[in-house]
Amino acid sequence: SLESIDFKDALEQFQNLVEKMIIQKTKERSGLYTKDDDEINYEKFYTTTRTLFGSAVKDQHIQAFFRKVMSNLDERPEWLEIFGCFRGESVDMSSSSKENMIVLVNEKQQITHSVVKRKDVIKGIVKVPFLHLTVTASQKGLLTVFSKQLIHLWRKSFSGYSFYFHQDTAWITGCDFLPNLKYVVAVTESTIILWDYKSKESESDGFVIKPMKNCLLCVCTVTMADNLARDTILMGDDKGYVYLLTITSDDFIMKQSKAEKVSQFKVLDSESFDIPKRKLHDDWVGKIKYFSALKRFGSCSTDSANSFVLDDIKRLEDHLPVKEFSVPKGVNAFTYCGKAKVIVTGG
Fold first, then answer.
1. Which parts of the chain fold into alpha helices (H)?
2. Which residue spans adopt a coiled-coil conformation according to this UniProt entry (predicted)?
3. What 3-state DSSP class applies to 147?
4. pTM over 0.70
5. Rg over CA atoms, the chain
6. Structure letter (DSSP) for residue 256
7. Cα atoms in the Cβ-side hemisphere of radius 13 Å centred on 316
8. Is 54 left (phi over 0), alpha (psi -120 to 50) or beta?
9. d(Cα 308, Cα 296) in Å, to the nearest integer?
10. Regarding beta strands 172-178 and 241-248, do their DSSP bridges make them parallel or antiparallel, or are they unpaired?
11. Range in 75-89, 272-286, 329-343 with the lowest mean pLDDT
12. What are all long-range contacts of 315-320, with beta carbons under 8 Å and residues at least 24 apart?
């Protein structure tokens, strides 16, 4: 338990930390900030918060608080949220109707196999229906493939071992599956990982494409019915850019001869690839998705001006105007329902 006088002092230091972090990020977005030793990144924020409050705060609440501050500098969360406490608003139940009632489901199915270790989280889950596979990627670098029966087939981290390993300190931020090349693709803050999950040869498990200039936050596959030995992926970064990268089987043959080898992953120079990009948002690209039924991609951001974009992937190369709309405080999530022919966004 925290003594009241110590807690008041710790809370004041915490609020000063948050204020300083907001000022730093505001300057950074306006191009006025120069990085120095006093920069507050996630690790520094986590360490300071843990020092101030000890075991009274949980890792997931620290991470959620940090991301909430970074995604919306104008409306900062209350300090209570660092302890997992949220102030609710009263609801007039007399005005409730069937349409706005919440349905509670208490039945759950659980996979007993532990996909990640302690202090790690899943950052991406992708279902591959035609191969009856499910792919997961953890924040600290563990890629996992499950079969239809949810049996663990292969489990490899970025290094190829069954324990967590980093080539660098970058976290995995998203994953998807390349249907034609049969590779798992994952992105970190500075690299693109291509994992040949079928390979049992330690010499040829995959490739790493780096360096990427900005921090990659999300990735998706562009599904096309051409059945060629190539796949196209879309990626979003922390500066509002969306990238288009097409990978062919020839790339693996031609480029790997010059590749530097790190563990069983061969490193490919990002400069050797043609990667068109276009700035579509003025803030982080939170999610990107390709809808084959619409032949369009969607990307969203907490940017209030360019919150959601829905257009052809050709717009990433020709720079013609894109179809977009604005939502106050931006969009965090979206999906498309083919049956109802509607796109739903969440802010």
1. 4-29, 42-53, 59-71, 249-255, 315-318
2. none
3. coil
4. no
5. 22
6. G
7. 26
8. left
9. 13
10. unpaired
11. 75-89
12. 315/278, 316/242, 316/243, 316/244, 316/276, 316/277, 316/278, 317/244, 317/276, 317/278, 319/278
Tell me the per-residue pLDDT of 99-144, one tens digit each, with 9 for 90 and over. 555 555 555 555 555 566 667 788 889 998 888 888 888 888 888 8
Q: Identify the DSSP state of 200.
A: -
User: What six digits make up the tokens of 298?
Assistant: 């969607």
Give 131's DSSP letter: G
Q: How far is CA 181 from CA 144, 265, 272, in A?
A: 18, 17, 19
Contact call for residues 192 and 245 (beta carbons, < 8 A)? yes
- Look at residue 236 in the predicted model and tell me its pLDDT: 96
SS3 label, residue 306: coil
Q: Burial, 166: exposed, middle or buried (Cβ in 10 Å; 0-12, 13-18, 19+)?
A: middle
From CA 306, how far away is CA 302, in angstroms rounded? Answer: 8
Q: Supply 340's token pair.
A: 């109802």
Which CB contacts under 8 angstroms, 24+ apart, belong to 148-157? 150/111, 150/113, 152/113, 153/197, 154/197, 154/200, 156/195, 156/197, 156/205
Instruction: Kindly state the average pLDDT of the residues 50-54.
Output: 90
